Amino acid sequence: MSAVNRDSLYDAIIVGARPAGAATAMLLARAGLRVLAVDKARCGADTISTHALMRAGVLQLTRWGLLDRVIAASTPPVRQATFYVGSDRTTIPVKVANGVDALYAPRRTILDPIIADAAEGCGAELRFGVTVKALQRDSTGRVIGITGHDHLGRHVSARAPFTVGADGMSSRVAHWAGAPTDHRGIAASAIYYGYWPGIATEGYEWYFRSGAGAGAIPTNDDQTCVYVATARGWYEPDPARPPNTQFRQLLTATAPELAERLANTAPTGELRRFAGRPGHLRRAAGPGWALVGDAGYFKDPITPHGITDALRDAELLAQAIMDALSGSDRTAPLAGYQATRDRLSLPLFTATNAIASYTWDSTQINALLKQCSAAMAAEVAAILTGQADPQLASSSR
């Protein structure tokens, strides 16, 4: 891999090539734009994730022609979701509509390379092992590109009318661009999760009980991602209670039915921990820059919707950049991107923040789950009616 030279000019540069960044690159490249996407990690590296795709995410992958690749990787179909709230149980089958007859939860080692390969197949240039160190600006302060180095220490420099931060919840692009946080959550989940082989599940399983939550998400290689979550700060280092002990104690209290299925089995590998972080909705764009995925919008993972929203926002942003580059006004399309993103995001963001407080009772959590369902339905409707991407939506009808 050769270094990117200072004379390298693109229509858009994307920092981060996980689902949000790679999907944005793919959509822009499909439209004929010259796109560079860089990522400091290697392609397909694993990362913290609950994997679950909701209907809008599966719908997007279907419309982009990528779902078949997810299925071909032996990703199990999920045809129902079962909710356990206290002693009550409700099973909801996945409605067959708009080409979606099941949900899927692919491992990130599978999903991320599928989207990255699709982006390259459309003509986008993806460079892994590249660390961005700064944004380039012109004399007016507008962002015009990036500088950094590759994994061999060679200088990397490239310019474009738009630089996109898709570099996660601790986005350096957002920091360098000075993106303010317009909405900030106050609650956060501490989560332990791991993978168990051969665990039978009733599709997605979600548990809410006694100030805690848990879930079982079937994924690739006959593995099930099982997590347990409660208020941030509960998981403190305790030599007397190692992670596996803490995990099983809270899982037994929260989801005894699930804990019983795991009782005589061991996880594949070690348990993983997410210590918790309040959500944010940062300013989506400014002069020469934009944010997508967790860089712009992160919410607590207790309502596993992060990948789905990342794919949605990739559509919104790609269309806004195309509109900006094809017209005389480069500001209005990006303002429209933010307005639509916020309109679709805030209801779920607000409900998720309330769930992550773990202060609800059974009546309140049921009401919050209904709010989440309504927000997800509105998101699907926006995609189908063209409010997320008019060009793609019209071709899918």
What this model shows, in words?
- With 397 residues, the chain is α/β, with parallel strands linked by helices.
- It has 2 domains: 12-75 and 106-185 and 278-358, FAD/NAD(P)-binding domain, CATH 3.50.50; 189-274, D-Amino Acid Oxidase, Chain A, domain 2.
- It contains 11 helices and 19 strands.
- It has a 7-stranded mixed β-sheet, sandwiched between helices. A 6-stranded mixed β-sheet has the order 5-2-1-9-18-17.
List keywords for this structure.
single chain; 397 residues; alpha/beta; FAD/NAD(P)-binding domain; D-Amino Acid Oxidase, Chain A, domain 2; 11 helices; 19 strands; globular
Strand content: 15-25%
Using only CA atoms, what is the Rg? Answer: 21 Å
Low-confidence stretches: 389-397
Q: Which fold name corresponds to the CATH topology of the largest domain?
A: FAD/NAD(P)-binding domain
CATH architecture of the largest domain: 3-Layer(bba) Sandwich
Q: What topology does this entry show?
A:
Blueprint (H helix, E strand, L loop, with lengths): L11 E4 L3 H12 L4 E5 L15 H9 L3 H6 L7 E6 L2 E6 L14 H14 L3 E4 L2 E7 L5 E7 L5 E5 L2 E4 L6 H6 L3 E4 L4 E9 L6 E6 L2 E8 L3 E9 L11 H12 L1 H7 L9 E3 L5 E3 L2 E2 L2 E3 L5 E2 L7 H21 L5 H24 L6 H23 L5 H7 L1
Parallel strand pairs: 1-2, 1-9, 2-5, 3-12, 9-18
Antiparallel strand pairs: 3-4, 6-7, 7-8, 10-16, 11-14, 11-15, 12-13, 13-14, 16-19, 17-18
Helix pairs in contact: 1-4, 1-8, 2-8, 2-10, 6-7, 8-9, 9-10
Quick structural summary:
The chain has helices spanning 19-30, 55-63, 67-72, 108-121, 172-177, 243-254, 256-262, 306-326, 332-355, 362-384, 390-396; strands at residues 12-15, 35-39, 80-85, 88-93, 125-128, 131-137, 143-149, 155-159, 162-165, 181-184, 189-197, 204-209, 212-219, 223-231, 272-274, 280-282, 285-286, 289-291, 297-298. It has 397 residues and is an alpha/beta fold.
